User: Fold this.
Amino acid sequence: MAIEVRIPTILRTHTGGNKTVEGSGSTLGALIDDLDSKHSGLKDRLVTEEGKLHRFVNVYVNDEDVRFTGALDTEVKDGDSVTILPAVAGGC
Amino acid sequence: MLRIDRATYDAIVAHARKDHPDEACGVVAGPEGTERPERFVPMLNAARSPTFYEFDSADLLALYREMDDRDEWPVVVYHSHTATEAYPSRTDIGYASGPAADPRTHYVLVSTRHHGPGTGLSGDDVEFRSYRIVDGEVSEEEVEIVESYLFGHSPTTVVYD
Assistant:
């Protein structure tokens, strides 16, 4: 078992074109580190230099937006499904 | 260039007018790998604001799952400006240049502002403009309105609602 991660189109350049990849870790942050070791460059796209999740990206564990569950500290486990999406917002 | 059918164009404008003075937003999905905006999907502006729009995060997830099931992508992402011109703001450009944003997206801006002298428009004329936004660079593109996409298809493939 592993954690399935769905990758948005533009970030598939890091995953050899794959729409879903698998990884492991006990938190979202650890999972992203694990993914980055196999898919180089992915972490830089998702996590800022300050070590925070990029604010223009939405990440969900199963159906929960991680903004409400502890961001990178959100706990994950085998069998979970993680989805990464571009945030859609703006203003005048 | 953005090629969009009349009915979808009208639906975007109607949504913008209906939600005025709040900003309206939504997408027009199309088959993955094409540039055809075919399925109009109005979204709720979770910010319910005249100066900001935001897809609710649960709605966003549901939308992407649905598009994924239908093998679609959001060809057009539209929103309205209700007091300013139909040009991407700094906030718009920031989000559109985000690390997961698809650079193929056509960003449609509709302005529902009331026109005084100087804009070349009058009363509640609506501005409808389209842009590509890549790495912070905005380029406006031509909008061509076609009467229907059906004309380009073989009649045997046409599905009437």
